[in-house]
Amino acid sequence: MTEIDWSDVRPRLAALAGGAEVVGDGLHRPLEPPLTGDELAELETQIGVALPEDYRAFLRQAGRGGAGPCYGLFPPRRVAGRWTWEGSPTRPETLARPFARIRGFVPDDYRRERPLHEGIPDLWGEVPADLPEDAVHSDGLLYLCDMGCAAWVTLVVSGPSRGQIWTDFCADGEGFQPEQNADGSRMTFTDWYRGWLRM
Fold first, then answer.
1. Strands across the sheet with 141-148, in order?
2. Measured at the alpha carbon of residue 161, what is the angle toward residues 158 and 162, in degrees to the nearest 5?
3. I need a labelling partner for 123 at 20 to 30 A (CA). Which of 39, 157, 165, 172 fits?
4. 163, 156, 177, 145: which is closest to 94 by C-alpha?
5. Does the predicted TM-score (pTM) go above 0.85?
6. Largest Cα span, the chain
7. Cβ(140)–Cβ(98) under 8 Å?
């Protein structure tokens, strides 16, 4: 498989920063240096799962975090010998556990307070039959950035929705929702980040 090329990101960010229009607050954060191959290997060994290919290529070629959508990308950091994502609610020890959902849902404690939308029968539905009884809703989710007002953009790193961007709107009672492209396909890290670069 050919690795995704992110070599154009730094020049494009420089051009955006010099323009009259501002593309989100995340543009004001510098794009931090990329991870080395050894750092990425150590990170993935510690979390127990390979990151989605486009995100890991971004980390190796473009940068570990900083400039990006919303308030910018949370950077992975080694703290006391362990890898974590600075500023992120990601729990590295849960990333290898599968995020078992395939459709948007409101966790049970929110569902009781919010009726289903009429005309969208499967918006919150379809939990796979093999969902572990002790599954936590954030298992397998890497929190990429803060959208403000306790809303978050996440990347699914394990489970049937691996590689997809989901939004955590639980603070608003809206639950977790998969993001889609204009053609209806599920959004990947590449779709999400490059969509921001094109704004």
1. 141-148, 151-156, 165-169, 175-178
2. 40
3. 157
4. 156
5. no
6. 52
7. yes
pLDDT, one tens digit per residue, over 82-103 is: 999 999 989 999 999 999 888 8
Task: Annotate 29-51 with DSSP letters as a single string.
Answer: SPPPPPPPHHHHHHHHHHHTSPP
Question: How far apart are alpha carbons 95 and 49 in whole angstroms?
Answer: 7
Contact 156, 166 (CB under 8 A): yes
- The tokens describing 155, both together, are 């990347």
Rounded to the nearest 10 degrees, the angle between the axes of helix 37-47 and helix 53-61 is 140
Half-sphere exposure of 158 (CA within 13 A, CB side): 17
Ordered by where they begin, the domains of the chain are: 9-198 (3.40.1580)
Read off the DSSP letter of residue 114.
S
Single-letter amino acid, residue 7? S
Amino acid at 88: S
Q: Read off the amino acid at residue 136.
A: V
